[in-house]
């Protein structure tokens, strides 16, 4: 009997849905053994009423306002550090002595003048305003001094010309200061009263319009009379302070006085005593101290002498003649207070940070255990049985790798082992000697260029050799733009030897590459974090929450810095500023730094990778030879041979660990000794595992074209090279992909198959890759540059049109 089958018109009833009213059994089945929460993982967010929300917002607003007012009251007060003001004239017509004369008013307060070499500074103590100022100056041409002083200045006063505002030197200085990070600043115009009365209003309107590009929504103050100088002082005292992240988390100090005590063993090294006000954070004697431009040092002790510049002038032992108050100098005041010296802290050897910057590599680390007697005897028997074949192989090639290298007759050492070449990776040299001639040849490929074109210049001051080198750089940069990464296959050296460190990749983005493979010897000297981001967060959290013993912010202290060269003290006596920053944990150790930079628009000279550049990274200043690479989110980053102007690149160097955020400025020293700004940016990370991959493109031309087959020539010039690179995938400029099928003849011709028919004007390409590493050329001592002159700086930075 046949079974009944329902027809297409059978009624379909909806399935029953339990909805919210389901039983306990169904809930247990859906839970599938999951347990209920015992502890809430998140805070219960309490819903506030509208009145409570308004009240809470008022409380937060009041707390922020009180914090800002407390910061204003502490800076320059009797218990806080001096309000440090940096005065920078932005035009050559600005008279800096005239501006200082207006600010040094006896009616305003007591003045103490300091003159250290070429740097002029003075203290202004004003009991009426309950404020203490410390005014310093720096010329825009002295770029290192301006940048170093701006790192510790609370306020910068820019002096502008009433007609032009700033000249080319001032514009260059502003570009550097904006890239480093500006603290609180004020704009003052000098010389408006010297103009005719009819032109004063028009000059101020034109100047305000021109200044809007750099300083939008900022007022211009005048500085021509005593009343205008007093208004400027009130503006400085009441301004809201802007914060720089790299200095707010570290203790720092500007030296008002210094002394040097040579050691008994050597007069060239001794103890440097630095006196000044603690700023930023609490200064701990066990932490390391970085002197800008000189290096890292340890502290022995911290003294707490009496404040030589109290707000009440009656405390200072003044002369009988009150008019002589301006002649009191800071070193004299310190000498008077040495009787009341008190030792605040002494360094604890158990808690003090070490000066070790590098890891001492162990040459035996990573070696295998010593083989047993049985293994040695088996190895000797195997060597006796195997036939010995003498071959000419590259330096550093192992026995296994030598089996894959063909003889001149075209036969390998093994039996029919060449057919498995498609499944093997290419030979890579195990030891990477950066100083060898072979490495130099691979780092700087030889390209076939046209003949150099000499400019017929009649200027006697032009250096012909420097001009020739610069012309060659321009031609290489243009060739790199026209034919990216393309190199000519050498005729005198086999391609399998010339490119033995390179490998082929199926996909640059997705193909695996082990970051720990074939590392250079310099990687044994650096430090690496297991998780750099977590370490940075932990250290910053400890700074905010943990109470550190030491000299509090605002105290006048004397730091005893041990093992300092006498050249640092002589440098200070010549008038250069002496600035010290305390280091966070691990910041003295060497690692691999990655920085994101963009090309400065005022400099167009080609900058090649591995050229020595000068870095301003946060509070540090040093020299290094960087690598350039693309800024992408992948695990591999393509190496760039030149610093391009259109996109941001990542600069990779060996350098001391620095926790971001930190600004980065790159300078290049010219042949005349001047430093030109080439790029600006910020610190990205401290990561030795970031892989910079160099690409080399070999090109060939189709000789005979069939349907999907083609004979390609001029990529290689012998049969062995074609067989060696047979597994690597080919591509063309018009988007075709293919492989090498077999060599033809002995002159490097090869039969290739593609996924479509080639065009006769197409070019066949082969991509080869290898990982590159920066050079270890870190040097913390940077030579002083030649001061910029207006006629010279206009060649690098265009003149700003202020109309």
UniProtKB/TrEMBL annotation:
Family under the similarity heading: Belongs to the TRAFAC class translation factor GTPase superfamily. Bms1-like GTPase family. TSR1 subfamily.
Coiled coil segments of this chain: none
Keywords assigned by UniProt, alphabetized: Nucleus, Ribosome biogenesis
Gene: TSR1
Top-level division of the source organism's lineage: Eukaryota
Official protein name in the record: Pre-rRNA-processing protein TSR1 homolog
Compartment list: Nucleus, Nucleolus
InterPro entries: AARP2CN, Bms1/Tsr1, BMS1_TSR1_C, G_Bms1/Tsr1_dom
SMART domains, alphabetized: AARP2CN, DUF663
Organism expressing this protein natively: Callorhinus ursinus (Northern fur seal)
GO aspect biological process, one term: maturation of SSU-rRNA from tricistronic rRNA transcript (SSU-rRNA, 5.8S rRNA, LSU-rRNA)
Domain Bms1-type G: 80-242
PROSITE patterns hit by this protein: G_BMS1 (PS51714)
Positions of region (Disordered): 1-36, 47-66
GO molecular function, one term: GTPase activity
Any one Gene Ontology cellular component term annotated for this protein: preribosome, small subunit precursor
Principal cellular location given in the protein's record: nucleus
Role summary: Required during maturation of the 40S ribosomal subunit in the nucleolus.
Biased amino acid composition, Basic residues: 13-24
């Amino acid at each position: 009997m046949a079974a009944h089958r329902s027809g297409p018109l059978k009624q379909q009833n909806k399935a029953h849905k339990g909805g919210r009213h389901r039983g306990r059994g169904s809930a247990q089945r859906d839970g599938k053994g999951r347990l209920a929460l015992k502890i809430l993982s998140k805070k219960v967010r309490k819903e506030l009423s509208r009145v409570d929300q308004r009240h809470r917002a008022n409380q937060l607003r009041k707390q922020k306002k009180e914090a800002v007012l407390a910061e204003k009251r502490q800076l320059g007060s009797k218990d806080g550090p001096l309000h440090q003001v940096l005065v920078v004239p932005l035009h050559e017509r600005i008279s800096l002595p005239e501006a200082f004369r207006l600010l040094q008013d006896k009616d305003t307060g007591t003045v103490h003048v300091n003159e250290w070499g070429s740097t002029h500074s003075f203290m202004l103590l004003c009991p009426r305003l309950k404020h203490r100022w410390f005014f310093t100056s720096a010329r825009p041409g002295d770029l290192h001094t301006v940048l170093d002083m701006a790192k510790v200045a609370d306020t910068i006063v820019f002096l502008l010309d009433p007609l032009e505002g700033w000249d080319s030197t001032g514009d260059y200085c502003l570009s550097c200061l904006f890239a480093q990070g500006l603290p609180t600043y004020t704009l003052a115009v000098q010389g408006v009263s010297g103009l005719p009365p009819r032109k004063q209003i028009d000059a101020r309107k034109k100047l305000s319009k021109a200044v809007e590009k750099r300083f939008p929504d900022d007022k211009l103050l005048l500085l021509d009379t005593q009343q205008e100088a007093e208004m400027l002082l009130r503006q400085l005292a009441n301004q809201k302070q802007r914060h720089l992240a790299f200095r707010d988390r570290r203790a720092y100090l500007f030296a008002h006085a210094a002394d040097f005590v040579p050691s008994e063993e050597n007069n060239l090294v001794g103890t440097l005593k630095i006196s000044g006000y603690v700023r930023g954070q609490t200064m701990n004697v066990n932490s390391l101290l970085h002197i800008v431009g000189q290096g890292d040092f340890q502290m022995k002790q911290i003294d707490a002498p009496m404040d030589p510049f109290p707000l009440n002038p009656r405390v200072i032992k003044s002369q009988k003649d009150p008019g002589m108050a301006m002649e009191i100098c800071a070193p004299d005041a310190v000498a008077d207070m040495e009787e009341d010296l008190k030792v605040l802290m002494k360094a604890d050897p158990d808690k003090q940070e070490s000066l070790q910057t590098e890891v001492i590599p162990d040459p035996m680390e990573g070696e295998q255990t010593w083989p047993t007697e049985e293994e040695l005897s088996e190895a000797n028997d195997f060597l006796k049985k195997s036939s010995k074949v003498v071959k000419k192989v590259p330096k550093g090639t192992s026995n296994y790798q030598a089996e894959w290298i063909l003889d001149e007759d075209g036969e390998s050492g093994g039996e029919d082992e060449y057919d498995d070449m498609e499944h093997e990776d290419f030979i890579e040299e195990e030891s990477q000697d950066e100083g060898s001639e072979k490495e130099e040849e691979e780092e700087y490929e030889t390209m076939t260029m046209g003949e150099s074109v000499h400019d017929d210049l009649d200027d006697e001051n032009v250096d012909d050799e420097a001009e020739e080198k610069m012309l060659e750089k321009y031609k290489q940069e243009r060739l790199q733009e026209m034919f990216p990464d393309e190199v000519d296959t050498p005729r005198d050296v086999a391609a399998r030897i010339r490119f033995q460190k390179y490998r082929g990749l199926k996909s640059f983005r997705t193909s695996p590459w082990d970051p720990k493979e074939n590392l250079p010897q310099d990687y044994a000297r650096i430090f690496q974090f297991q998780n750099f981001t977590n370490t940075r967060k932990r250290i910053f959290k400890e700074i905010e929450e943990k109470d550190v013993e030491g000299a509090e912010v605002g105290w006048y202290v004397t730091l005893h810095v041990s093992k300092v060269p006498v050249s640092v003290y002589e440098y200070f006596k010549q008038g250069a500023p002496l600035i010290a920053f305390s280091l966070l944990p691990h910041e003295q150790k060497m690692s691999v730094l990655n920085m994101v930079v963009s090309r400065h628009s005022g400099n167009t000279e080609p900058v090649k990778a591995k050229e020595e550049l000068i870095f301003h990274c946060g509070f540090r200043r040093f020299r290094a030879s960087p690598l350039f690479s693309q800024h992408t989110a992948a695990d591999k980053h393509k190496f760039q041979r030149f610093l391009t102007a259109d996109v941001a690149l990542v600069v990779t160097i060996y350098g001391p660990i620095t926790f971001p955020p930190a600004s980065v400025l790159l300078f290049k020293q010219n042949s005349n000794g001047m430093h030109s700004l080439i790029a600006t940016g910020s610190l990205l990370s401290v990561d030795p595992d970031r892989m910079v991959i160099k690409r080399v493109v070999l090109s060939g031309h189709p000789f005979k074209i069939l349907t999907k087959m083609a004979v390609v020539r001029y990529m290689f010039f012998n049969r062995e090279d074609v067989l060696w690179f047979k597994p690597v995938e080919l591509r063309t400029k018009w988007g075709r992909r293919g492989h090498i099928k077999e060599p033809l003849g002995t002159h490097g011709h090869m039969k290739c198959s593609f996924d479509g028919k080639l065009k006769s004007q197409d070019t066949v390409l082969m991509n080869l890759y290898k990982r590159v590493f920066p050079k270890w050329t870190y040097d913390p001592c940077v030579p002083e540059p030649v001061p910029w002159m207006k006629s010279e700086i206009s060649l690098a930075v265009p003149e700003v049109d202020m109309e």
